[in-house]
Amino acid sequence: MSNTPYSLHNLNVEMRDVRIRTEFSQVALGKAIGRTQKQMSEIENGYVNPTPELAIKWFSALGAYEHVDMVQYIFGLHPLASAPIDPRLNEDLDRALLNLKKQIKQALKAVDNIEDWISELRPGSVADVPMREFKEIYDLGPAQKTTMYALNREFGVDLKLLTDKWAMKSFSTKVAMPRYEERQLMHV
Q: What's the DSSP call for residue 86?
């Protein structure tokens, strides 16, 4: 049993709290995600552990995207999954942009330091990787996501629709990795 808010042990409590904060009843949310009120109650009271898929569906239906990040972090669904930034730290887009700007500046300085580190490497020598510098680059991910979540919260921008639109543009300009079907065609 973990003593952190980002653990499977506390996930059901967080699911309940977010549902209540967003003013959804168990019945209404259950209908949205295909569960009965009894099933919703069993999940919230910890009698049933939610699967990652169910927890993601739950939080997505409530528009609690930081909590989707939390699910990915708890279940280790991606090697770069991180604990989410508390949405209260970025309640509005202005604050989120200030945070992103700060992170970009720190990441740019870190990139310069990493370039210096690489230029000083010598063949056959052992060198410590400057992990603090790489952390600054890593921190851009949560800052970028939080900015987009603030855009959704404050202006109602549909993030899924926006992401799909931008992904299609990336496919058409050949910036994004081709879909599986397109890769198959390339090998023929």
A: P
